[in-house]
Design brief:
Structural class: alpha/beta
Strand content: 5-15%
Largest sheet: 11 strands, mixed
Number of helices: 17
Length: 486
């Protein structure tokens, strides 16, 4: 996922604590997908604004095996964010689509999502299906408000490719549709199971005799020891403050529990100012800044620049989502032994150390003005088949939101395997913010405040004020009342 992936922005189970995770673990164990009997695939689809099917030029005769009436010989315009997962998986999908349905594809793999697609949306000539992800993602809430997204309910209610007696939505991990939801409708299919948190090198830790920290004091101690040895403590992708917000927001959720997280999503007047958890979380991260424990130069680096220096053992920790391993394949030493770590705990935290932000990332959308709506809907239906889910796992080293979605012969790499172990340990203790999907303007304001904080231009008290101001501004928007977490 390049720079911010769906949660890109971290997002995780249902909006509560990760519904269906135990089932997921059992299923993965049965699959024998990895040596660890645990896995969960989380949060995905959402349905939203605009778009009916009238005038669909790709519409032909419907049948049980062709519920949308896809026309053989029609063409599909596919745009894929070519970030951490690459785009080979989509090329494999398109080859299968052509072979089985006789539909050819125009394939674009790019990181310039906004640059290439905004003019097309503006002109009423969007692609048919888009992986709308990365640092230059066109924000889903903005597209939805402009009536530019298809409501995905017809796809989710269509017969499953693998078991036509069931709907597509019945084949998806429970609770995984939340991240793509706008005002109660599903308008984006967040396809990839993702966890967010800290990462470290198993080799470096073994060489230095460090134990993965479970408490914040132990985390700070390792960062201090690293600094003495000429190694940065914490690296972050400074030009994209989304990443450091993974750490800050995780600290808030783990300190104050799900209520502290939901207060932010629900635009509470005390979401930040007046929240003990928010104050404790941001002060903890600022401690790293104040004590000079950041990797030198990290505030001015892009995601790949910071991540590459971390791969070069120039920092003990980095914040990221689970696309990190794929994104850094070429830069990661063979014996690096990439590992995932939940955020360490502050004293008297409501959630346990094992709790993680987990959910779905990589939002796929169908524009309401797509020329081949039938072809796009059928393509998405097949994305949620075991065949295409397995193709994705083989090409992208990651799991999807489909139950039992990967052939047991597929083996995942060490970092991804460590997320499987973390998911098993977390059990039902997962959480996921939704403000990043619901309120992109507010999210950007919080990121801007975090950028100032990490550069030491403001202190925690001012950070809290700016974040609360962003919440209060968003709360004045009447449409905000249509999004709420219980």
């Amino acid at each position: 996922m390049g720079s911010t992936s769906a949660e890109n922005n971290g997002t995780g189970g249902t909006g509560t604590s990760g519904v269906g995770r135990r089932d997921l673990i059992r299923r993965s164990a049965a699959l024998g997908l990895i040596s660890v009997p645990a896995m969960s695939l989380l949060s995905a689809c959402a349905s939203g604004g605009g778009g009916d099917d009238d005038g669909d030029s790709g519409q032909g005769k419907t049948s049980k095996s062709n519920p949308f009436g896809v026309q053989k010989g029609s063409k599909l315009d596919v745009v894929i964010f070519k970030g951490g997962y690459g785009d080979d998986y989509a090329k494999a999908w398109e080859a299968s689509y052509k072979q089985k349905l006789g539909i050819t594809s125009t394939h674009t793999g790019t990181q310039e999502i906004t640059g290439k697609l905004q003019p097309r949306f503006n002109a009423g000539n969007p692609p048919d299906i888009v992986d709308d992800s990365g640092a230059q993602q066109i924000k889903v809430d903005v597209l939805y408000k402009n009536g530019q997204l298809l409501d995905l309910a017809p796809v989710l209610d269509a017969p499953s490719v693998d078991d036509p007696s069931k709907k597509v939505r019945d084949m998806i991990i429970p609770g995984t549709l939340d991240a793509g939801m706008q005002e109660g409708k599903i308008v984006a299919l967040n396809y990839i199971y993702t966890v967010w948190g800290l990462w470290y090198s198993g080799k470096l830790f073994k060489d230095k005799g460090w134990e993965p920290p479970k408490t914040w004091d132990d985390f700070i101690a390792i960062c201090q020891d690293a600094k003495k040895q000429g190694i940065g403590g914490l690296a972050h992708q400074g030009k994209y403050p989304y990443y450091i917000n993974v750490a800050i927001m995780d600290m808030i959720a783990k300190k104050g529990g799900l209520d502290a997280m939901k207060a932010i999503d629900n635009l509470d007047p005390k979401a930040f100012v007046g929240s003990e958890a928010a104050q404790a979380g941001v002060e903890a991260i600022y401690e790293v800044v104040e004590k000079g424990l950041l990797m030198p130069g990290t505030n001015g680096l892009t995601h790949t620049e910071s991540q590459t220096r971390w791969n070069q053992y120039k920092a003990a920790f980095i914040t990221c989502g689970s696309w990190l391993e794929n994104e850094q394949l070429k830069q990661t030493p063979a014996d690096f032994d990439m590992k995932f770590l939940p955020m360490p705990l502050l004293p008297d935290s409501e959630l346990p150390f094992e709790a993680i932000r987990a959910g779905s990332g990589e939002p796929f959308i169908i524009p309401s003005k797509a020329k081949n709506l039938a072809g796009a809907k059928e393509f998405m239906r097949r994305m949620l088949s075991k065949e295409w889910s397995t193709l994705f796992a083989k090409e992208a080293n990651s799991l999807t939101i489909l139950k039992d979605g990967v052939d047991p012969t597929v083996q995942l790499r060490p970092g991804t395997q460590s997320t499987v172990e973390a998911s098993k340990a977390a059990g039902d203790n997962t959480f996921r913010y939704l403000y990043t999907e619901w309120y992109s303007e507010m999210g950007a304001a919080i990121e801007a405040a975090s950028n100032e904080l990490m550069a030491k231009r403001i202190q925690p008290k001012e950070w809290l004020k700016r974040c609360q101001a962003a919440v209060d501004k968003q709360a004045k928007d009447p449409s905000s009342k249509k999004n709420h977490r219980d």
